[in-house]
Amino acid sequence: MANLSKRLVQRILQELHSETLPYSPLIYPPPQAWDKTDNDILLRNSWREISKIKNAPVDLYVHIPFCASVCNFCGMNSKLLDDPCRIDEYLNALNAEASIIGGLLSPKRISSVRVGGGTPSLLSESQIRKLFGFLFDIFKFERNQFGNNPISIVFEASPYSLDIGKLGVLKENGVNGLALGVQSLDDKVLRRSGRLQTKAEVREVIKNARQAKFDYVSVDLMCGLEGQTEKSFLNDVETMIKWGADRIVLYGFSPTKHTRFAKEGGIITEKRRKEISRVVEKGIGIIQNKGYKSDADETEVNSGIRDYPGRGIYEGSYLAYGEQDEKGRWHSVAGLGLGSMSVIVDKARYGNHRSLKAYMNSLKRGRLPAETGVKLTLKMKMINHIMRIIDDRVISIKKFKRKFGEDIKEKFSNQLRHLVSRGIIRERGGNYEIGEIMNGENLIFEISHAFFEEKILKKLQAKYALSDSDAAFRPVSNELEPNIFLTDKCNQQCLFCSSVGEDRLQNEKEINYCVLNSKDTISIEGGEPTLSRDLSRWVRFAKNKGVKEIILCTNGATFSDKKSVLSLVRDGVTLFNVNFPSHIEKIFNALTQTKGLFKKRLENLGRLFECAGGERVRFTFVINKLNYLTMRAYAEFIKDRFPGVSYIEFNMIKIKGSVKKRTYLVPRLSEIAPYLRSALKFCADNGVKCLVDGMPVCLIKEFKEASIEAFKLDAGDYTYMNEKTKPARCKGCALGKICAGPRKDYVDMYGDCELKPVLSGSRKY
């Protein structure tokens, strides 16, 4: 495991993930860490060595980068076609590259072919003939491409540019599979996404492909596109089944930072990602109920008529990953064309130039057009094999030994022990398996953090120009927060509640995982968690698992007798975090939407204080428009009524939950600041511990030690920072290392004009 801080590694991997195509396997080392290469001799010798190995199949990928329009969701290596003549020039360059590779591989036979893009169907009939003409002249194939049992030849196409004539030419040249980029059948959604086809054109292409007797037609559908609804997406799925698609591939809209959507400021929130994932799962269910069988990837489904042709090409060609077939053979991938990546199994990987000019110039000099590459070490090959656990969910200990001649338990003992202890993987039946509750980006981070070599992480760190200080201010949204949510029921309807409609409830597996991976602190939240029958059970479970601090977030309404409080203390609650928004009855009633309960609430809190002790109680004051003027008086009230209280926490209101419809409750930071400073001064003068959350340090700099963010950042703890932001206005502020900035939702509402960056060397600082 690397010596870099965990937080920095997480930032590095976040950047890497933002450039990785959705649903792609993570390869090691990733292309972003490859070196610039001009080692033409090494690559040529590597291909020659592969050509001499009998049981070493090679797949061919040919990239056509040109498109007639730029789709806002596309992160592929594509270029807008501004001059049709460029296609012929490009085909000449492809021919030159194919000639080099073909000469190096001879007499090796190609196992499968995929032509992708871009939009290969932009080629004219004569250009398609030209492409396949030189491919068939240069390369030998495992089976006669026109025989009864042909190799897989897959051609990607866009429905608007694939007519009957082109279908005929493709069929003549041995193409047996079509991969259609459909994405949506809603013409309005298509226009908004930048796609040129219509629903009618999609139907016509599928109909014509059937008549031309292609072996299979695969279609891609994307969920979560702008303007798309759940109903329209699921209708598209039903329609594709009705039209007889052999394979239906469902994707959630997850744009990389290189997409037009991201470059224009588009953002997919975590909540939106979960919603998209939920709808995709519905679509998969519909397909499976119609008799389609699930593919290796849970997001992809096919009919089961035949295995998906060229699956290794599909993944390997873009990612230089390579694929293992049913015979256990690892396939190399020869990637031809602009930006294509190649994998020479167990030897090297390289990526072609992404600049058309540089690509063509290399070929004019008679060189392979490689821009970046990596010569694989034994350790790299081992780690690459282990990273497959993210997709395959299992690593065979015996197969690892057979492949590499070493015991995985000895070679990676520390990494495996760490992952097993955290419940991320488990050893069972001679295998290492992913834990049942570990999925998504958390899993990618944990596995990557354990196995990535420090030299690779440092290359990525340099590429993304990251430092530890950067890591502090750009938190990762998928970091596990030590919160468990037991119920959404509540006995108050607080105007400022951030939970309403947020769907934060967790199942038992999720709660179990959260507890096992949060040894220091767990916060139990709701709703009102004391209304859950499972509260005591989970408190005891956390205590038995060694969690040091168990915080119960409550409004105190259920503490009508000492028994209920003492029971929770015995179970293991170490701190009662009491939501008490005002000491003034009228304001309390208005904020909690209760009436006649204020005095009873104070009695209950007195009982809590008596039974649990002041050191186990903190009061949380959610700052809002109705109460911010009273903060100092509130602090005075708490000190007098509950002497010895652990501390008071002033939290900035969140524009979440019920507040989304009540934005009038959100005061400006500049309005709050003087009243908050007055409350903090009282607390400091009278020995009352006080903390603040959501208030930029520049607005309370004389009380910066009260800032939760300052405290946590200084201690290297970045939990809960994902809701904060560092606007451009904060750049260069001397307080930057102890300030996470204002809440993101606040900046979205009011902007950042109130922030007052402190210059380094300022007396005020």
Structure description:
The chain has 29 helices and 26 strands. It is α/β, with parallel strands linked by helices and 765 residues long. Helix 8 runs parallel beside helix 10. The longest helix has 21 residues. The chain is elongated. It starts with 5 loop residues before the first helix and ends in a 15-residue tail after the last helix.
Question: TL;DR of this structure?
Answer:
This protein is 40% helix and 16% strand.
Features:
single chain; 765 residues; alpha/beta; 10-stranded mixed beta sheet; 7-stranded parallel beta sheet; 16% strand; disordered C terminus
List the helices and strands and how they pair.
Blueprint: H1 6-18, E1 35-36, H2 40-51, E2 58-64, E3 66-67, E4 79-80, H3 85-105, E5 109-117, H4 125-138, E6 140-141, E7 152-157, H5 164-172, E8 177-183, H6 187-193, H7 199-211, E9 216-223, H8 230-242, E10 247-252, H9 260-263, H10 270-289, E11 293-294, E12 300-302, H11 311-319, E13 332-336, E14 341-344, E15 348-352, H12 356-364, E16 370-375, H13 378-387, H14 389-392, E17 394-396, H15 397-404, H16 408-411, H17 413-421, E18 425-428, E19 431-434, H18 440-451, H19 454-464, H20 468-473, E20 483-485, H21 508-516, E21 521-525, H22 535-544, E22 549-554, H23 562-571, E23 575-579, H24 585-592, H25 598-612, E24 617-623, H26 631-641, E25 647-652, H27 669-685, E26 690-693, H28 708-715, H29 744-750
Parallel strand pairs: 2-5, 2-13, 3-4, 5-6, 5-7, 7-8, 8-9, 9-10, 20-21, 21-22, 22-23, 23-24, 24-25, 25-26
Antiparallel strand pairs: 1-16, 10-12, 11-12, 14-15, 15-16, 17-19, 18-19
Helix pairs in contact: 1-19, 3-4, 3-12, 8-10, 17-18, 23-25, 26-27
